[in-house]
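Customer escalation, tier 2.

The customer says the design service returned an amino acid string that "doesn't look like it belongs to this structure." They asked us to rerun it and document both sides in this ticket. The original structure tokens are below, unchanged.
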């Protein structure tokens, strides 16, 4: 339990998800409400860009999407850079520097993101995602969604590919639309991750595709 009838899932595929429980006057559970888990931009708006509304109806929606990566970064709250600062600690009233480590921080707010090695150089949000712009510019590809998690410790962006796949055309006739999701981790200095998956990315899918 997190507090105020809010809970966090600790195991399984939904690990990390949070939900709120509403109870009646007798203390019995009446409703379980999933929380969207999205961060807010520095102006207070939800840090999410999407080409179509998600189940929670939040974020900056551009119907049909946009082809401008800078607009996507601005609407999703990803238009910030990451810098590094020395790792300092106190010892017997004296401030000392840990030479083998440094901290990643947001350049716009100064918020701490993570602890990394002394040789680490941050991969900026735009630099990590801009390679997809060629697909958007040359082919019928749409920026599908983008956003940040945990104050910018993790960031993601996804595109929807133009070629859909039909499964069992004479039976269930299920149409699968492929997506490519790119994730960057400013907390643990992990590599930029690229995944292709057949569902529209949301917070839960971005967690899932990171798992082995």
């Amino acid at each position: 339990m997190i507090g105020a009838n809010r809970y966090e899932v600790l195991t399984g595929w939904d690990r990390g998800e949070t939900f709120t429980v509403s109870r009646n006057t007798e203390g019995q559970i009446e409703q379980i409400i999933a929380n969207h888990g999205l961060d807010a931009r520095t102006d207070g708006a939800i840090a999410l860009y999407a080409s179509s509304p998600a189940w929670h109806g939040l974020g900056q929606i551009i119907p049909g999407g946009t082809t401008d990566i800078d607009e996507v970064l601005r609407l999703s709250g990803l238009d910030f850079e990451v810098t590094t600062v020395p790792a300092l600690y106190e010892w017997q009233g004296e401030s000392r520097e840990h030479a083998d480590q440094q901290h990643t921080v947001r350049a716009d707010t100064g918020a701490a993101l993570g602890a990394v090695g002394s040789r680490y150089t941050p991969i900026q949000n735009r630099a990590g995602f801009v390679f997809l712009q060629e697909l958007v510019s040359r082919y019928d590809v749409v920026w599908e969604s983008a956003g940040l998690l945990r104050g910018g410790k993790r960031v993601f962006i996804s595109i929807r590919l133009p070629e859909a796949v039909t499964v069992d055309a004479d039976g269930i006739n299920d149409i699968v639309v492929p997506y490519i999701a790119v994730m960057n981790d400013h907390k643990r200095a992990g590599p930029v991750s690229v995944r292709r998956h057949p569902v529209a990315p949301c917070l839960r899918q971005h967690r899932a595709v990171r798992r082995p």
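Tier 2 assessment: The sequence is consistent with the input. The longest strand covers residues 94-106. Confidence is low (pLDDT under 50) at residues 200-212. Sent an explanation to the customer and offered a walkthrough call.
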